[in-house]
Specification:
By secondary structure, the protein is of the alpha+beta class. The chain has helices at 5-29, 35-49, 64-75, 77-93, 102-127, 137-170, 174-182, 186-200, 207-214, 216-260, 265-281, 287-299, 309-312, 320-327, 329-338, 346-352, 373-387, 399-409, 416-427, 456-460, 468-479, 485-496, 539-547, 557-560, 600-616, and strands at residues 52-54, 59-61, 504-511, 516-524, 534-535, 551-555, 572-580, 583-592. It folds into 3 domains: 5-214, Arp2/3 complex 21 kDa subunit ARPC3 (Orthogonal Bundle); 250-427, Hypothetical protein af1432 (Orthogonal Bundle), CATH 1.10.3210.10; 456-621, GAF domain (Beta-Lactamase), CATH 3.30.450.40. Helix 17 (373-387) runs antiparallel to helix 18 (399-409). The chain starts with a helix and ends in a 12-residue tail after the last helix.
Length: 628
């Protein structure tokens, strides 16, 4: 198997560094070793071992570069190269053990030696080998320019070689790595250059004495800085704790919104994780953009707090007025979050996460690159996760169908570059791939054995012992109706009403031709007209029909007063699907004027009555409606 470009580059750099160190060692041994060089070597080792590190954040620094630069500019390129290599070794020993490896240590030594030796050679080529003489303003300018060239070369070569190594290893853009992790280190090189400039103008026979007098200064700086950093670390630890509380509050808010939208907390965390992975795949290197995407992934739907729940969870297609209400959640969410004052651009992502690439989205109709990259990423990831997750109104799609939808929307709704990167990420089965929805076993419709209304053991599986007598009477009377739904509805109302706080009962029949629910029986308080139609997915009972899911204590006005104009006194509803396996008959719904008065026991009783109804209903009143 051929070696990767990263491995080839690292060992090529190590060999180049070893050649320079070998050449420099031979050069130094050709003449008596300078006392100044030995003192500088000692100071470099001490300063390297005294590296200051803040455990709470990945930052460390030392002043050993100063002595390396002094050695290179005062003693010579060979002296500077050897001390630089030793400095790299000392600094590597201070590295965390989990990050320390042979190739890292050798690369650190090699890059420092190469950069120092090369920069010093160029410097002496510019100014000559003798001690600099400042006899005119022009000579001072010339020396300043030469020192600047040295600093730029030493810093540029060293940081560039390290950035290239990281870039090849992580397959990330070198410019982003250099800017984020290495660009701020130039200050240590600048300080070292000017310290070396001061050494140049000391009498050569006093240089060692000066360095000895200078030795306590690094110790004083180290102790003072360590004390200051200790206090800073306490503050950082406090801020870290506050940040964790802050993030926890954000997650709690996000989960509360998703609970209203009947979405699990796993969804928002998967969207967050996969959004960050996709951003890295797209080479988004700006850390503020990454942090903004992390927060926006959790909070992008916070505006749904202003959307009525019956619209949020409607199974069928939203009407035009309902869709206009739903569209408000993006600007409302942005307005809510704008008062928080995030230190990164969360609000634009939340506001624009429903904008389309071709300008047909909302709320502002912006297009193309004008849409924040975080919003474009979030839009694709959120869509895929929603499609491949179970919802109350539909089962999850398989990945192939969901990817087909993304592909169809590529270049129109979604940024083609984002979609392509998502496809690559999806195809990656390594640990860096997508966080996946946990596979759930297929849910089959219950296939209970036919109910024998003369046996109490069948009834005991559906209702409590307290209702066995009622269940027996109900089964007997329903069986006497010969399957007529109006007659069954009359039996249900007569038998159930005394045992629960019901003010009205409607037994809906599903009509295949109309694809809607039609009232077969109306009992108690006035509710619907006999010729009413409830389309699948609409109102409360239509939602129950579409999802085959029972609902307890929902708002009764969603059925009897869908415009919520307070015209009806009915407030709570208990609705259950009337079905027997794949055979769907309709919906049984009870209403009451008291809010929240139905209990779980009432639900079990009505579900048992619905099962009896489904078994007894005549075939002409049944349907093979498939659950959506």
């Amino acid at each position: 198997m051929p070696m990767s470009r990263s491995v080839v580059y690292v060992w090529a750099a190590v060999l180049a560094g070893a050649a320079i160190v070998a050449h420099s060692t031979a050069d130094l041994l050709a003449a008596p070793v300078s006392t100044t060089w030995l003192v500088l070597l000692g100071l470099t080792v001490v300063a390297g071992l005294a590296t200051l590190r803040i455990p709470a954040i990945p930052i460390s620094f030392s002043i050993s570069d100063t002595f390396t630069i002094i050695a290179a500019l005062v003693v010579g390129p060979s002296a500077g190269a050897i001390i630089a290599a030793i400095d790299g070794l000392v600094l590597s020993c201070r590295m965390e053990s989990t990050r320390r490896s042979l190739h890292r240590v050798l690369l650190n030594m090699a890059t420092l030696a190469i950069a120092t030796w090369l920069a010093a050679r160029v410097y002496f080529w510019l100014v000559g080998t003798g001690a600099p003489v400042l006899d005119t303003p022009l000579s001072a300018i010339r020396l300043l320019l030469a020192l600047t060239v040295f600093g730029v070369l030493a810093f540029g070569v060293n940081s560039g070689m390290v950035a290239l190594a990281i870039s090849l290893e992580k397959q990330a853009p070198i410019a982003g790595i250099w800017k984020q992790h290495l660009s701020s280190l130039w200050i240590t090189y600048l300080g070292g250059v000017f310290a070396a400039m001061l050494m140049m103008f000391l009498p050569r026979d006093n240089a060692v004495a000066f360095l000895i007098l200078l030795a306590p200064l690094p110790v004083i700086l180290y102790v003072t800085s360590r004390h200051a950093l200790g206090r800073a670390e306490d503050q950082i630890d406090h801020l870290g704790k506050m940040n964790r509380v802050y993030v926890a509050a954000i997650e709690a808010l996000a989960q509360a919104i998703d609970a209203k939208d009947q979405v699990t907390s796993d969804h928002i965390h998967r969207v967050q994780d996969n959004s960050i992975r996709l951003a890295r795949k797209l080479d988004v290197a700006d850390e503020l953009q990454i942090q903004a995407l992390k927060a926006a992934s959790l909070l992008h739907d916070v505006g749904k707090i202003a959307v009525p729940e019956h619209i949020l969870n409607k199974p069928g297609r939203l009407s035009a007025p309902e869709f206009e209400i739903m569209k408000r959640h993006a600007p409302v969410g942005a307005d809510i979050l704008s008062v928080i004052g995030f230190p990164y651009p969360v609000v634009p992502i939340v506001r624009h996460h429903h904008e389309n690439w071709d300008g047909t989205g909302y709320p502002d109709g912006i297009a193309g690159e004008a849409i924040p990259i975080g919003a474009r990423i979030l839009q694709v990831v959120d869509c895929f996760d929603a499609l491949t997750s179970h919802r109350p109104y539909r089962p999850r799609m398989d990945d192939r169908d969901a990817l087909k939808i993304l592909s169809d929307r590529r270049g129109t709704m979604y940024d083609a570059r984002v979609v392509d990167a998502f496809f690559e990420l999806h195809a990656d089965h390594s640990s860096e791939g997508l966080v996946r929805t946990e596979e759930e076993p297929a849910v089959e419709e219950p296939t209970a054995a036919p109910v024998d209304i003369g046996r109490s053991d069948a009834a005991s599986e559906a209702v409590t012992e307290h209702h066995l007598g009622l269940f027996f009477d109900l089964g007997r009377d329903v069986a006497a109706t010969a399957g007529s739904l109006p007659e069954i509805g009359e039996v249900l109302w007569r038998q159930l009403a005394p045992h629960m706080p019901a003010s009205a009962l409607v037994l809906y029949r599903y009509d295949d031709e109309l694809d809607a629910l039609v009232p077969s029986y109306l009992g108690g308080e006035p509710t619907l007209r006999a010729d009413s139609r409830v389309r699948l997915g609409e109102r409360l009972s239509g939602w129950v029909a579409a999802t085959r899911t029972s609902v307890v204590n929902s708002d009764a006005r969603l059925d009897v007063d869908p415009d919520l104009r307070e015209a009806s006194a009915l407030r709570s509803a208990l609705a259950v699907p009337v079905s027997n396996g794949p055979r769907f008959v309709g919906v049984l719904t009870l209403y009451t004027v008291e809010s929240g008065s139905f209990t779980e026991r009432h639900k079990r009783l009505v579900e048992a009555a619905a099962l009896v109804t489904a078994r007894a209903a005549a075939p002409s009143g049944a349907s093979s409606l498939v659950s959506r």
